[in-house]
Design goal:
The chain is mainly alpha-helical. The protein contains 8 helices and 5 strands.
Length: 283
């Protein structure tokens, strides 16, 4: 076999195989010189895409690049996925059972926002004034004869406490349901939610809540903050009465008896007499 190679590599290469010329596609092996900025810093060490530990900017693939603003960052498919912003998580919601609702109502009673169970209590600020809107915490300082406070809502949230609650639960606005969820979060944060689920308002439960609500007594019977406090016996009585009402209102009602048809048959007449009950003689 003999071969003849063109001197100009841009022209076709012709091989002569078995006396027959074979024309191959044009082969252009010319290339622009490699820019110095992309050449390995040390020719003896190949660039494997691994950042050197002595590189001041670890996001640069090649340590020899002089201008990091035009460099390509070292990334992987997993890193690319992590760079995609994720949607914000949904709000955490606590179930509200009769036992939890009774405790929430008892806290409102102790804080002076019970308002006979009306939603008006969710608008009360410290001092007795009412918020104009429930779109947000008012963060308004109000004064009484002895104290000044920015507490607001059915559970008298302080502004800093409410900001912490909303960030933890992903809640917005300041409506009744949102305030209930915020109060349950604070109860859980004090390690008292499992105690509340037992359906008993014990001195120890009150003691766990006292650092959160100044009107609830400690085991010593005093406010955790030296403020006016409700007596434990009074709160316990309110809790038990409220829980009894809530449990009664959640009991399933007895379904109505099935309608007997046809009504004029003997069987339906006897069933109707059974529902009336026994009668005494002479009635």
């Amino acid at each position: 076999m003999s071969a003849r190679l063109s001197k100009n590599l841009r022209n076709p290469i012709v091989f002569v195989l078995a006396g027959l010329p074979v024309l191959l596609p044009t082969l252009d092996v010319s290339a622009a010189p490699i820019p110095e900025s992309f050449a390995p810093a040390n020719p003896a060490i190949p660039n494997l895409g691994i950042a050197s530990p002595d590189i001041t900017n670890p996001g640069i693939l090649n340590p020899a690049i002089a201008n990091p603003e035009i460099a390509s960052p070292l990334s992987s498919p997993s890193e690319a996925l992590l760079s995609v912003p994720l949607p914000p998580p949904g709000p955490r919601l606590f179930a509200i059972t009769p036992e939890r609702r009774a405790l929430l109502n008892t806290i409102r009673y102790s804080e002076g926002t019970w308002a006979n169970g009306d939603d008006l209590g969710y608008r009360i600020m410290f001092g007795g004034g009412l918020m104009a809107s429930l779109e947000r915490h008012p963060e308004q300082v109000n004064r009484s004869s002895r104290y000044a406070s920015a507490a607001a809502g059915a559970y008298q949230f302080m502004p800093s406490t409410w900001r912490m609650v909303t960030q933890a639960l992903g809640l917005a606005q300041f409506g009744p349901q949102v305030q209930d969820q915020g109060a349950l979060y604070l109860i859980q944060r004090r390690g008292a939610l499992s105690l509340a689920d037992q359906g008993l308002f014990t001195p120890y439960l009150a003691h766990r809540l006292a650092p959160e609500w100044a009107s609830i007594p400690t085991l010593a019977g005093r406010s955790y903050y030296g403020q006016p406090v409700k007596r434990y016996d009074e709160l316990k009585r309110f809790y038990e009465d409220n829980l009894t009402q809530l449990r009664a209102s959640t009991l399933p009602s007895e379904p109505p008896p099935p309608v007997c048809e046809p009504a004029d048959t003997l069987r339906c007449r006897l069933e109707a007499l059974d529902r009336v009950g026994p009668r005494t003689l002479g009635s």
